[in-house]
Amino acid sequence: MEQKNPVYVKMEYSESIESKKNILSTEVSLLNLIKSLKEYHSIRLEELKIKAQIYKAIKELNLTMRKTKSTFPFLKIPEKNKKENLPLREARVPKEKVDNNLESELQEIQEKLRNLGM
Question: What letter would DSSP give residue 72?
Answer without folding.
Answer: S
